[in-house]
Design goal:
Blueprint (H helix, E strand, L loop, with lengths): L1 H45 L10 H17 L4 E8 L2 E8 L2 H20 L8 H8 L5 E6 L3 E7 L3 H20 L12 H4 L21 E9 L2 E8 L4 E5 L5 E14 L4 E5 L4 E4 L5 E16 L4
Antiparallel strand pairs: 1-2, 2-4, 3-4, 5-6, 6-11, 7-11, 8-9, 8-10, 8-11
Length: 303
Amino acid sequence: MTNNSEQKRSGRANQRQRGMLRGAYLGMMVVALAAAAWAQQNVQQHDGPGQGRMRGMMGEGRQDMETIHSLFGAHQKISRSVKKLDNGVETVTESSDPKVQALIREHVGAMYQRLSAGQPIRMWDPLYAEIFRQAGKIKMDMFNTEKGIRVIETSTDAWVVKLLHSHADGVSEFVEKGMAVMHKEHPLPAAVLGKAVATMKVLPLRTSVGAGKDKEVEQLFEGPGRKLVQITLRNNSILETHKATLPITIQCVAGGGVLKVGDALEAIELKPGVLVTIEANALHKIEAKPDVSILLTQFTAKL
């Protein structure tokens, strides 16, 4: 009798425990499904037309790369026309395949987002690196077509217009040749590098820090043997330790900061008028205290 009673009590306890576990499991499932539904709804509410899945930077970068690879793989299904304007370029990129149409619109939207937010890609490619450096001078308008998208990119800066023309040619080559040219580097426009430069040119060097982003890089000139770039750091920003493969000079034109050079990172105070030469492959770093603007002269191998 005692054994039977204990067995019954044990059985009822086990049933209650199993019931509690089932209840907890169902509760977790309901929470998980509700969270997934909320996330899906939130994505649908915030994704703009043609922008695709633009979310956190890690996910966004991964999705951008997947979209780009898919477009290269489907390049034979894509048609493209380019009209070069005096102040920019107008392109129409389309496909008869609905899936490819969606990829085209998603990619264009993602690149618009990156230009606006200063989130570059292909920084190993000279043309793309310069386009992202000049992103603030580009106006981009997008219009969905029946089979793809029409994009108008314009600028009031003559140099940026040349960049836009070169970029349009590069994308057309991507469409024509696909994966074979995916990792091709694109030089800066031959119209600037290939022609003889004028005897002299007055450059728009800014002699005050002024307001702006924490880090700004503006190319002032590129010609035979050298390139001049103005770099402005604000709010105690830092240009992290790096090196140049050819000799450079750094001249402080506004504000103040610290330049650190060499393996020991010897500190040099930057103030207007200070000019420093740095040999090729020497490590250097710049710290704003709190704001500084420098003129960087990069000497190139070709004259």
